[in-house]
Design goal:
Shape: globular
Largest sheet: 7 strands, mixed
Structural class: mainly beta
Helix content: under 10%
Number of helices: 0
Radius of gyration: 13 Å
Strand content: over 45%
Low-confidence stretches: none
Length: 114
């Protein structure tokens, strides 16, 4: 079965950096577009970044120039490198793939606070 397991979240000060990882299994990772979403307290879940099988990326305007999505098709792992973090980046971050159904990871919490 499809499994998406995120890791790498934590507490970081404003201006700091984190790298999130999503270990994928149960499907042919390399042929699917993968995405990161986030949900801040009291807000709706929103798309942060996506990457196609060929490596084409897209980003939410709020993270452009600060976040970078990447994938390793050998390790079946999705990454989100986050830098210049702001307090408004505080959220639970989710890995996502859509095949015939939608699949979400359990999420990893990122808190940006001094």
């Amino acid at each position: 079965q499809v499994q998406l397991v995120e890791s790498g979240g934590g507490l970081v000060q404003p201006g700091g950096s984190l790298r999130l990882s999503c270990a994928a299994s149960g499907f042919i990772f390399r042929i699917y577009t993968m995405s990161w979403y986030r949900q801040a307290p009291g807000k709706e879940r929103e798309l942060v970044a996506g990457i196609t099988p060929g490596g084409i990326t897209n980003y939410a305007d709020s993270v452009k120039g600060r976040f970078r999505i990447a994938r390793d098709n050998v390790k079946n792992t999705l990454y989100l490198e986050m830098s210049s973090l702001k307090t408004e980046d505080t959220a639970v971050y989710y890995c996502y793939v859509r095949r015939s159904s939608e699949y979400w990871g359990q999420g990893t919490e990122v808190t940006v606070s001094s």
